[in-house]
Write a structure and sequence with these properties.
Layout (H helix, E strand, L loop, with lengths): L6 E5 L4 H12 L3 E6 L6 H13 L4 E5 L5 H15 L4 E6 L20 H24 L8 E7 L10 H21 L5 E7 L13 H11 L8 H11 L11 E4 L8
Parallel strand pairs: 1-2, 1-4, 2-3, 4-5, 5-6, 6-7
């Protein structure tokens, strides 16, 4: 599918959906720019993803930075532009999963979410998509046929204890997807959200009551199992196909039918 000059940019590339998609796209022939935030204890995950990409004969250029920091984002994009030397990024994936999981109203004020935490969650998990796309556009790093995808969840329209700030971020992300799809359509760039089914990822394991979420999804999913990061990666690889050019502005379920079951 990809050629030696084709690149993908994965935001949140070291594990979960981002890590699986980086590997899948490398297998399809794409070189990978990866953005992740890992310390010494989790760096082996990023190194494993980079190693997998390189074993497939593709380039892996990773940036261990805070993806929401404006200066670090700008510097990383400048480095990408220099590395591409006139080339383009064909696929952009937003899979940043870092937010606050606290109730809006708690018995003790200190246990509830505060303004700084809400703002941070929205900035990382939703608004950062806009800023990365702006940076790519201003540097002419996208072209006709570029595909932008971002990870949302059923939590964008449903409630779960302590999930409020992340739910709000997912709803905002889907709104950003629609607006970007509208604005970028004349350039031949598509923008879609991927709504994965419940998936056992490091991010999900941080949600209070995750065991109940996982068990409920196993029983509810008509396909008889949980969604995996590889299921989502395969769907994103399909969207990378040039024949997907008329699919834009959508929230696409990749869940084995889980969302249709009440």
């Amino acid at each position: 599918m990809g050629s030696p000059s084709d690149w993908a940019l994965i935001l949140g590339a070291s594990s979960g959906f981002g890590g699986a998609t980086a590997k899948e796209l490398a297998a399809a022939g794409f070189n990978i720019f990866g953005v992740h935030l890992d310390r010494s204890t989790t760096m082996p995950m990023a190194e494993e993803v980079m190693g997998s990409i390189r074993k497939q004969g593709r380039e892996a250029v990773f940036f261990n930075i805070n993806a929401s920091d404006p200066d670090k984002r700008s510097n990383a994009l400048d480095e990408m532009k220099d590395h591409l030397a006139g080339g383009f990024i064909r696929i952009v994936m937003h899979s940043l999963a870092f937010g606050t999981l606290r109730p809006y109203v708690a018995d003790q004020t200190k246990d509830g979410v505060n303004q700084k935490q809400v703002d941070m969650t929205l900035d990382v998990m939703a608004n950062s998509l806009v800023y990365w796309v702006q940076g790519l556009a201003h540097r002419n790093l996208m072209c006709e046929g570029t595909r932008i995808v971002a990870m949302t969840s059923a939590g964008g329209t449903r409630i779960w204890p302590s999930y409020g700030p992340v739910s709000a971020a997912k709803a905002a992300l889907e709104s950003h997807i629609r607006q970007l799809a509208y604005e970028l359509a004349p350039k031949g760039i598509t923008v879609n959200a991927i709504r994965a089914g419940v998936t056992d990822t490091p991010a999900l394991r941080k949600i209070p009551g995750n065991d109940e979420l996982l068990e409920g999804a196993r029983h509810r999913n008509p396909s008889g199992r949980l969604t995996t990061p590889e299921d989502v990666a395969a769907a994103i690889a399909l969207l990378a196909d040039p024949r997907s050019y008329w699919i834009t502005g959508n929230t696409i379920g990749v869940d084995g039918g889980e969302d249709i079951v009440g």
